[in-house]
Design a protein that fits this description.
The complex is a heterodimer of chains A (336) and B (224).
Chain A (H helix, E strand, L loop, with lengths): L2 E10 L2 E11 L4 E5 L6 H8 L7 E6 L2 E2 L5 H8 L2 E5 L10 H11 L4 H14 L15 H13 L5 E5 L7 H18 L2 E6 L2 H7 L2 E6 L2 E7 H6 L4 H8 L14 E2 L7 E6 L7 H8 L3 E12 L2 E11 L2 H13 L3 E4 L3
Parallel strand pairs in A: 3-8, 3-9, 6-7, 7-8
Antiparallel strand pairs in A: 1-2, 1-4, 4-5, 9-10, 11-13, 12-14, 12-15, 13-14
Chain B lengths: L5 H38 L12 H16 L2 H7 L1 H8 L5 H25 L3 H9 L4 H35 L6 H11 L4 H31 L2
Chain lengths: 336, 224
């Protein structure tokens, strides 16, 4: 489902929440809309998801204009839209499985059909064993998974994610994002992700639009925007970007190779800045293959950590390790 | 305690049954009247207060009626409603006729309790239900009421306890029940032991209702 927005406008009293937004959201892609709080994201998503009518402008789903439909048809249309939220918004009066059943109940699915589809969806989000769990017993990530299953129950063609990962820790965020990506591919969904986290755009989206003060200031493929940001708003977002959290270990070391390395070298204080590695390579017949590194502050001192393999003739490696240790570098070896 | 003859005990038993009859029936009728009114009050309120179908004028009118009925002194209400009781039950005195003013006095109270309980439901959950394409009646019956159920049960407990108090008051104008007994035997015939027993029975009733209400509410919360 392709979504087209034409000159959307929505004001609240004197606040111009959304002013003149035109966007074309391609189908079967993950489209990110990023903006700071107050940029008009929430209003925009309410307009696009037909929860609110714009003051002016048009919303099109494929070749159909939907913003001016009568209430009855809007309700029908909404049944083919999935939406997940920052606070999950699950029904506390229902178990996990009954939450997933809700949209099917209101769409008048048969009882047996609901039952089997609930099972299917629980499996899809990896929570088959929690069907009868009360909502309060689920973790944040599990709640969002149930919310995703619920959003997908009636086989929607669009999935809106309104700050869906903002209440989750980085690890859970990653797992939710990869679930959404996975589902997007499997179900041919058009996914619209509203967020204030550039990490989410980087890790999940194909396209992005940057929203500022109710206007789209920049849009394009994520690759292009990241490579050549044009506006200050976008640059600001990019500057806050932290390293890809999936590859950062708890000790702050960034790992960029999947192959586990044998040695961990720790450089303390003043030695952080001396060219130990270069010296060793010049002196011995060894090669370093660095697969990860990072710097940590330990109290007042800095500690550099490097994860690497050292290869070369056995004798040379041994001698090189000794020399490294002599220079005050701590060497930890993972026994293979 | 020698005043408490078997005949008096029998009377106390009958009065207790009368009170139970009054309270249970008026609870039923006040809920029948108050629940729809409370739902209406909630859904017609402004969208900012969680109204899913704002109707400002209707909401204002309903709200006024509820306020007037709630501030009306109960004892006066009974007298004002004598003609209505006579019309519905055929008489203005006795247990059955007291059910009319009791129900009408408690209905606005129930309405407010329902309204408050429903408004406490997380707006995000209602928004989620709307995005899924729920109709307004589906939101009311499948989301608002089930989500607010523990709070509604607490409110119902409170209503029953209030009605026990009101039913005792109704005794003053010939309503029957434990209040009537306490006034006629205990006060007017100078038999404080009868009054004491009547009051103790009322206290026990209140305690039992509160206990059961708390248990049900807690049981529901534990399952969420």
């Amino acid at each position: 489902m392709q979504i087209t927005l034409k000159n959307l406008m929505r004001n609240y009293e004197n606040v111009h929440a959304v002013q003149d937004v035109s966007l074309s959201i391609p189908e079967n892609r993950i489209f990110g809309i990023i903006g700071l709080s107050g940029a008009g994201k929430s209003t925009l998503v309410r307009l696009v998801s037909l929860l609110e009518k714009p003051d002016s402008g048009e919303v099109w789903y494929d070749d159909m204009r939907v913003d001016n439909l009568p209430e009855k048809e809007i309700i029908q249309r909404r049944r083919h839209i999935g939406m997940i939220f920052q606070n999950f918004n699950l029904f506390s009066s229902r178990t996990a499985g009954q939450n997933i059943a809700y949209p099917m109940e209101i769409c008048k699915y048969q009882k047996d059909e609901i039952k089997s589809r609930v099972r299917e969806l629980l499996e899809l989000v990896g929570l088959s064993d929690r069907e009868n769990a009360p909502i309060s017993t689920l973790s944040g990530g599990q709640k969002q998974r149930i919310a995703i299953a619920r959003a997908l129950a009636c086989k929607p063609d669009i999935l809106f994610c309104d700050e869906a990962t903002s209440a989750l820790d980085p690890k859970t965020t990653q797992s939710i994002l990869s679930l959404i990506k996975d589902i997007q591919r499997k179900m041919n969904l058009t996914v619209v992700m509203i967020t204030h986290q550039m990490e989410v755009v980087r890790d999940a989206c194909d396209y992005v639009a940057v929203l500022s003060e109710g206007k789209v200031v920049e849009q394009g493929t994520v690759k292009d925007i990241f490579a050549q940001p044009k506006t200050n708003v976008t640059k600001e977002f990019l500057s806050h970007l932290t390293t890809n959290t999936a590859n950062v270990r708890d000790d702050g070391v960034v790992i960029w190779s999947d192959v586990p390395a044998r040695y961990t070298l720790r450089f303390l204080n003043d030695r952080v800045e001396t060219p130990v590695i270069s010296d060793i390579i010049r002196e011995f017949d060894v090669v370093f293959n660095i697969s990860g590194a990072g710097i940590q502050k330990v109290g007042d001192t800095k500690m550099g950590t490097m994860v690497c393999d050292i290869s070369g003739p056995e004798e040379a490696v041994k001698a090189a390790l000794e020399a490294i240790k002599e220079r005050g570098v701590i060497v930890e070896e993972v026994q293979a | 305690m020698k005043g408490l003859t078997p005949a008096i005990w029998k009377l106390i038993g009958q009065s207790t049954l009368q009170t139970l009859e009054m309270v249970s029936l008026s609870t039923l009728f006040s809920v029948l009247l108050g629940l729809p009114l409370g739902i209406l009050l909630c859904i017609t309120s402004p969208a900012s207060q969680g109204g899913i179908r704002p109707k400002p004028v209707l909401n204002e009118i309903l709200s006024r009626i509820v306020n007037i009925l709630r501030s009306f002194p109960f004892i006066i209400l009974i007298i004002v409603l004598f003609p209505l009781s006579r019309l519905i039950v055929g008489t203005a005195i006795g247990t059955k006729s007291t059910i009319v003013p009791l129900s009408i006095a408690a209905a606005p109270f129930v309405a407010r309790i329902v309204e408050t309980s429903l408004k406490e439901v997380d707006p995000g959950v209602i928004q989620a239900a709307r995005t899924m394409g729920s109709t307004n009646s589906q939101i009311v019956f499948k989301v608002l009421l089930p989500e607010a159920l523990p709070s509604l049960i607490s409110g119902l407990t409170l209503t029953i306890i209030n009605l026990i108090g009101y039913s005792a008051m109704a005794g003053a104008v010939g309503g029957g029940g434990l209040g009537d007994l306490a006034i006629r035997y205990g006060y007017q015939r100078f038999r404080p032991e009868v009054m004491a027993v009547a009051v103790i029975v009322i206290l026990v009733l209140v305690e039992v209702i509160q206990f059961i209400g708390n248990k049900i509410s807690a049981h529901m919360m534990a399952k969420r």
